[in-house]
Amino acid sequence: MPSPASPSRQDDASPPNSPFQRQMRQLGLLFAGAGFMAASIAVARRSVLRRQLESFPKFYSGNRVVHKVDSGERSLMAVQALGLATLNVMSFGIMLTGGISWAFDLCNLRELRERTQVALRRPGNFSQEDEKEMEKMMSTILDKLGMQNPEELAKEKEEARKETTTSRD
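Structure (tokenized):
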């Protein structure tokens, strides 16, 4: 486990110097994902075609015999289908990650982290009048739906608590 003073391997990677290098680094992941997805689709298509060919009856077989599939064969087919689906989803995820990094001009996780922190620390531009108008609108909607405002619900609980304490005395 690396010590807290030493940066991780991802943090050591500095962003590329030229815009062309940045584009190539970002598009590299996108194209790798696209190639991986093409390969996974080819493998899945080949598997489906093989299963379809296996399902056809032999040329000199009787048409009154029903081919029974045992549970072991069904389990194997289910495991193969799960594997192919996982392969396809993972390849799509790699391609999507590459596309997002290219679209948002990100080269590594450090840049993503920095941009996220900047966006989270940005102050909001909300006026008090808009906030009060929103509260009024939400209270009318809650009244129409037969629900209570959380503030009103807290007031009613407090009043009920006071009534129970005064009735005990």
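Residues 1-8 have pLDDT under 50 and may be disordered. The longest helix spans residues 19-55.
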